[in-house]
């Protein structure tokens, strides 16, 4: 669910650079010099180094002879990301359906209710946050620490991608998540995983359109 802890400076810088790289505000191949970034964010080089190290792990920064360069996603990498997410989240759903108590799904319903409120007020950022909390709930309810740790690095990337790809029809997107949750709560694992695949393919398609237009 929502992590209310304030982000460390390195994480804040990573979040800003991640958004800029994924949206194309930072050009492909741009040299990301620690000194220049430290001056830009008015910090020492330590938080910048932490941020760049995290982005390198996520594949958004490339190390070439000890110099770091921005590396936006191409379409093939986008397909790889969604394939990996489908595998991880499919397992999370299977375990969550098996292990979660019926009342625990009520908390997930409250996340969908947050999405509905965000849709009614037109708050796209709040909607995107709730969207990630919705999917994150599967990992939490799966009660598998290693699975959760495997998802964490990609959660950061997808938190930006979700904002880029979410449809402007937030009401329809809310109902899509409601129907998704309804399927999960039936306990039919095969139907839930199939619904996940449909959900992710649709999101990936919208994102491909966004990236293609950019």
UniProtKB/TrEMBL annotation:
<dbReference type="Pfam" id="PF07729">
    <property type="entry name" value="FCD"/>
</dbReference>
<dbReference type="InterPro" id="IPR036388">
    <property type="entry name" value="WH-like_DNA-bd_sf"/>
</dbReference>
<dbReference type="Pfam" id="PF00392">
    <property type="entry name" value="GntR"/>
</dbReference>
<keyword id="KW-0238">DNA-binding</keyword>
<dbReference type="InterPro" id="IPR008920">
    <property type="entry name" value="TF_FadR/GntR_C"/>
</dbReference>
<dbReference type="InterPro" id="IPR000524">
    <property type="entry name" value="Tscrpt_reg_HTH_GntR"/>
</dbReference>
<dbReference type="GO" id="GO:0003677">
    <property type="term" value="F:DNA binding"/>
</dbReference>
<protein>
    <submittedName>
        <fullName>GntR family transcriptional regulator</fullName>
    </submittedName>
</protein>
<dbReference type="GO" id="GO:0003700">
    <property type="term" value="F:DNA-binding transcription factor activity"/>
</dbReference>
<dbReference type="InterPro" id="IPR011711">
    <property type="entry name" value="GntR_C"/>
</dbReference>
<dbReference type="InterPro" id="IPR036390">
    <property type="entry name" value="WH_DNA-bd_sf"/>
</dbReference>
<keyword id="KW-0804">Transcription</keyword>
<feature type="domain" description="HTH gntR-type">
    <location>
        <begin position="7"/>
        <end position="78"/>
    </location>
</feature>
<keyword id="KW-0805">Transcription regulation</keyword>
